[in-house]
Amino acid sequence: MPSEDSFIQYCVNGILNMPPHHISRFSDNTLHNIADIFNLKLINLYHESVQKEHIEFYKSTMWAKLFLPTPLVDRGFFRKVINRLGRIGRHCIKIPPNAYGHTAVAIYEIK
């Protein structure tokens, strides 16, 4: 499922992270609470790392986050300027080794 604790939470205008493609976005806290609400035991919560095909997407997203707020949708002029400048600026963005990719898997067991 999409992880709201990954860089994807900062993605603006990301239509593939909006309904109907993704109906909801789950944080780690939500996944822990699901276990409590439904009397389950959370066995494992796994986050993928940033995949090779998402490296430029990660860098562009984090570049824009440096300069602008991160609403779900922003069609403004400054967003367009920052996104254009990001073609150069994203090369300055480093991906931390512990950065989450945008997928999480939660494994539960019935108590």
Q: Can you give a write-up of this model?
A:
This protein is of the alpha+beta class. It has one domain. Helices cover 32% and strands 19% of the residues. It has 3 helices and 2 strands; from the N terminus they run αβααβ. A two-stranded antiparallel sheet has the order 1-2. α2 (55-67) packs across α3 (77-89). The chain is elongated. 15% of the residues are buried.
Features:
19% strand, two-stranded antiparallel ribbon, single chain, 3 helices, 32% helix, 111 residues, alpha+beta
What's the SSE blueprint?
Elements: H1 28-37, E1 40-49, H2 55-67, H3 77-89, E2 100-110
Outline the biggest β-sheet.
2 strands, antiparallel
Uncertain segments: none
Domain tally? 1
The SS-based structural class is: alpha+beta
Strand/helix succession: HEHHE
> Percent helix among the residues?
25-40%
How confident is the prediction overall: mean pLDDT? 94
Q: What is the topology, as strand order, of the major beta sheet?
A: 1-2
User: Cα-atom Rg, whole angstroms?
Assistant: 16 Å
Global shape: elongated
Distance between the termini: 23 Å
| Number of H- or I-type helical stretches | 3
Q: How many beta strands in the DSSP annotation?
A: 2
Strand content: 15-25%
Describe this structure in a few short sentences.
This protein has 111 residues and is of the alpha+beta class. It is built from 3 helices and 2 strands.
